[in-house]
């Protein structure tokens, strides 16, 4: 699963730390998300989408290949 967190952070002029504080996680979690090293919980995905005022699908790009 890929995501657009870094792009959306830039659009909203937010640092990784600022986004982390808004969604109650550590900055490292945002780093791992941006590097596609971590898949968020549904709640975290929802919270991130709310910060950016978009849908979860607009932040997280699901891979259609189900062989993972």
Task: Walk me through the structure.
The chain has about 70 residues and is mainly α. It has one domain: lambda repressor-like DNA-binding domains (434 Repressor (Amino-terminal Domain)), CATH 1.10.260.40. It is about 55% helix and about 5% strand. It has a two-stranded antiparallel sheet. Helix 2 crosses helix 3. The model has no long low-confidence stretch (mean pLDDT about 95).
Properties at a glance:
68 residues; 434 Repressor (Amino-terminal Domain); two-stranded antiparallel ribbon; 2 strands; 54% helix; 6% strand
* Tally of contiguous helical segments: 5
Structural class: mainly alpha
Specify the CATH homologous superfamily. Answer: lambda repressor-like DNA-binding domains
Main sheet, how many strands, which sense, barrel? 2 strands, antiparallel
**What is the element string, with H for helices and E for strands?**
EHHHHHE
* CATH fold group: 434 Repressor (Amino-terminal Domain)
User: What is the C-alpha radius of gyration, as a whole number of Å?
Assistant: 11 Å
Strand content: 5-15%
Low-confidence stretches: none
């Amino acid at each position: 699963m890929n995501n657009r967190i870094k792009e959306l952070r830039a659009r909203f002029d937010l640092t990784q730390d600022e986004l982390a504080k808004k969604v109650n996680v550590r900055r490292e979690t945002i780093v791992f998300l941006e590097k596609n090293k971590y898949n968020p919980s549904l709640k975290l995905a929802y919270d991130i989408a709310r910060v950016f005022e978009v849908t979860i699908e607009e932040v997280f790009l699901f891979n259609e290949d189900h062989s993972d």
